[in-house]
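Repro case for the chain-ordering regression, as requested:
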Amino acid sequence: QVQLQESGPGLVKPSETLSLTCTVSGGSISSYYWSWIRQPPGKGLEWIGYIYYSGSTNYNPSLKSRVTISVDTSKNQFSLKLSSVTAADTAVYYCARTPDYYMDVWGKGTTVTVSS
Amino acid sequence: AIRMTQSPSSFSASTGDRVTITCRASQGISSYLAWYQQKPGKAPKLLIYAASTLQSGVPSRFSGSGSGTDFTLTISCLQSEDFATYYCQQYYSYPLTFGQGTKVEIK
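-- result from build under test --
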């Protein structure tokens, strides 16, 4: 079955760029949409955006100016870049398969802390 | 953005209880609604999509209903493994948005 695994630095300095990668195993990335979602400590879920394997994207307007999601089909991976981070970007970041704009398979999540 | 409001935010229940969680959308979303279960330190798990379609492998004690602006998630007979936080999510329009969550605790 399809599994997703997030990877990337757990600590990012303020004003720098957060970079995460999601590796898809057990299936091809060349179908479906693929999302990033985050969850600040003790809070709810926030959709960041998604990418289709062809490269088309859709971002949350609240983050759009700072977000870039890209895909590498040769590696079965998709990635998130969030620029100019602040402490408010501290969260658990999840990647997820998005078959019909809901999320049916999730990665375990990775904690990113923004701190100097 | 469509605002999703869940009620209650938390409540206590006992094993065997029938429980219902409500999710209200700030505007009509047809049946474009999903429900997730999240346990502490774990990723959310999809329970229901299209308001009432049970995801494969999810126990039949979970059910969903509603359309338009008002939706419910019902657990017919609460089990110990069901104590968790539940989220609704609309996918009628962008940005995709979640409710604030409903925490089901042990009485």
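Ordering looks correct now. The first strand of chain A starts at residue 3 and ends at 7.
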